[in-house]
Amino acid sequence: MVEAIKDLYLSSPPVKRQWENFLKKRGIDDFASQETASIDQTIGLFDEQDQLVGTGSIAGQTIKYIAVEDDAHAASGARFNQVVSALENRLAEQGCFHLFVFTKPKYQAAFEHVGFKTLAKTDYGLILEKGTPNIDSYRQGLKQRPATAKTVAAIVMNANPFTKGHRYLVEKAARENDWVYVFVVNQDVSLFTTKERTDLVREGTKDLTNVAVENGGDYMVSYLSFPAYFVKDQDQAIAYQTALDASLFKEQLAKPLGIQKRYVGTEPLSHTTALYNEALKNILPPEVLVEEVPRLKASGSDQVVSATEVRQKIKEEQVNDLAQLVPESTFDFIKENQKRLQERILKGQQINGN
Amino acid sequence: MEIKQTALAGTLESSDIQIMLSEGSDGIHFDLTSDVKKQFGDDIMATIKDVLAAYDIEKANVKVIDKGALTPVIKARAITVAQRALDLKDQPNWEVL
């Protein structure tokens, strides 16, 4: 039996229709543009009669839209394995050896059978990864807490940019715990770049000796685990993603690193973040406690300090008002780079998201 | 020899083996998935180790997904992945073969 892998060019309407029909018959029916737009390439597996019997796609380093027609004659899963390894080899040719897949719980075994490891699992779905570097090497790259540290806490922040509100949260965690990990969201889609955000968090917390500032990698509030943080989506999708993100944090980071508490700010402003806090409270306890800290209010006002407001002020060129919202290090950075930041906003960088 | 880049060889199809070779810190570390690990796991790892030794690779992480490959197949995939990882694709090392 000779079956061949070929490229499927979805830009051609008949090919796309054939592909959609094939997937629909196998229970995949979400072809919303935000899902399909990220696809880099799609392959099809064709049998001797040139019938489509399997397909899979790559979006960045994620495998998507994978489905195969079961063949009564061949060993079960042969086609599935063929599609997965063809996708892997294509990624390897591009120098990408680390891939992810989102799938339904019933396919967990099929992916584990070809070397994927489950990162997080909920009732609706799971994330698996394969290759290198992986979650183990990520964990090994983190700063080790001193052996004497008994209470360990974590905060995940985008810090776009680092404000007095963030500082207040970190300070409180550092005061109440022996060791604090601050994970900065890695996704580079904010007004301040990942490097700028991380540097400003480092700069703004360098006097706190029990705080380790780390990059959150692919594992915390990334496009991978929580795309709705960056792209507007329905509540249902948000609920599903926040649950995955929270359980990934719990299983792969909190448990191995001995993190007992996660600090979050109350969220009166952002709907998505408020839902995220809810998910954390549902999933992390009892092993990991969630400490929801009331947000810091700007001096002499009732408004909470928020990075959204900081970005608004940059847009409106009222940088001097920022002294009461951000620590000195962030303030100096904004003053120095005011032009560049404003250019980014003019070029279309969204500032009212997260 | 030092591994220059992560490399992948082989497929996940029946009777084949997929090997991923990446830089390691000390020694050769295996992560082997195979339905016949109990019976042939040691043999599979020994075959790959021999090939790596022939290329003077002393430090590496080796991820292996075996789908029932026979020894010559394992050897061929190991040679390919070593050549790719050392960036020697166009200078085959005939003596290893």
From TrEMBL, chain A:
<dbReference type="InterPro" id="IPR004821">
    <property type="entry name" value="Cyt_trans-like"/>
</dbReference>
<keyword id="KW-0436">Ligase</keyword>
<dbReference type="InterPro" id="IPR014729">
    <property type="entry name" value="Rossmann-like_a/b/a_fold"/>
</dbReference>
<keyword id="KW-0547">Nucleotide-binding</keyword>
<dbReference type="GO" id="GO:0008771">
    <property type="term" value="F:[citrate (pro-3S)-lyase] ligase activity"/>
</dbReference>
<dbReference type="Pfam" id="PF08218">
    <property type="entry name" value="Citrate_ly_lig"/>
</dbReference>
<dbReference type="InterPro" id="IPR005216">
    <property type="entry name" value="Citrate_lyase_ligase"/>
</dbReference>
<comment type="function">
    <text>Acetylation of prosthetic group (2-(5''-phosphoribosyl)-3'-dephosphocoenzyme-A) of the gamma subunit of citrate lyase.</text>
</comment>
<protein>
    <recommendedName>
        <fullName>[Citrate [pro-3S]-lyase] ligase</fullName>
        <ecNumber>6.2.1.22</ecNumber>
    </recommendedName>
</protein>
<dbReference type="InterPro" id="IPR013166">
    <property type="entry name" value="Citrate_lyase_ligase_C"/>
</dbReference>
<feature type="domain" description="Citrate lyase ligase C-terminal">
    <location>
        <begin position="152"/>
        <end position="334"/>
    </location>
</feature>
<keyword id="KW-0067">ATP-binding</keyword>
TrEMBL record, chain B:
<dbReference type="Pfam" id="PF06857">
    <property type="entry name" value="ACP"/>
</dbReference>
<feature type="modified residue" description="O-(phosphoribosyl dephospho-coenzyme A)serine">
    <location>
        <position position="14"/>
    </location>
</feature>
<comment type="similarity">
    <text>Belongs to the CitD family.</text>
</comment>
<comment type="function">
    <text>Covalent carrier of the coenzyme of citrate lyase.</text>
</comment>
<keyword id="KW-0597">Phosphoprotein</keyword>
<keyword id="KW-0456">Lyase</keyword>
<dbReference type="InterPro" id="IPR006495">
    <property type="entry name" value="CitD"/>
</dbReference>
<protein>
    <recommendedName>
        <fullName>Citrate lyase acyl carrier protein</fullName>
    </recommendedName>
</protein>
<dbReference type="GO" id="GO:0008815">
    <property type="term" value="F:citrate (pro-3S)-lyase activity"/>
</dbReference>
<keyword id="KW-0963">Cytoplasm</keyword>
<dbReference type="InterPro" id="IPR023439">
    <property type="entry name" value="Mal_deCO2ase/Cit_lyase_ACP"/>
</dbReference>
<comment type="subunit">
    <text>Oligomer with a subunit composition of (alpha,beta,gamma)6.</text>
</comment>
